Sequence to fold (211 residues):
Amino acid sequence: MSKESKAQWMAFWNERYAEPVLAYGDKANVFFQKELVKLTPGRLFLPAEGQGRNAVYAAELGWDVLAVDYAQTGHDRAMDLATQHGVSFAYEVGDLTDSARLEEWLGRGPFDAIGVVFMHLPQGEQEMVLQRIVRALKPGGHFICELFSKHQLGNPSGGPQKIEMLTDPVDFELLLKENFSELRVWEENVVLHEGSYHEGNGSVVRAVGLV
Fold:
């Protein structure tokens, strides 16, 4: 992504997260909830965490959370949401595709779990970030991921409307499988109820992995 495109993308998210109503609601992603509750709390990394809904949920379960997003307004709303729920967690503002910053954040691991929920980056950058972050898992660590699939293109329930920012399950598994002793990746049609921007029928790629 060019510097100009990245600046526009950051401005887009800062504007969206500054809106009066939480863009994706105050409840954690349903798939993330379902998988995280199965695990024993430990250190958790949440890239592209937005307004903090997943971080709050995890903190309420007792996880030690490090969240990252490049929208300052996302951070600010996340801190407000944390205060409302009586929890706290670390939240860094910065660019996940900045290699030095990513290395700094991952250096706070290793992590017991990583949760990736609707992280939107161009394909090459998405692949780079995913490959880097899964290597920060401890032996026995867990990976939870939900992204929009390429079949989401044209659906009104959210996600980028650019094919290069959507996910193919076969390519996703090939990219990451060597990092895991167990990895399941599948595509699923779902009905989303996550605030005004994720509402209705959607097509997602889901993955769970064990190092």
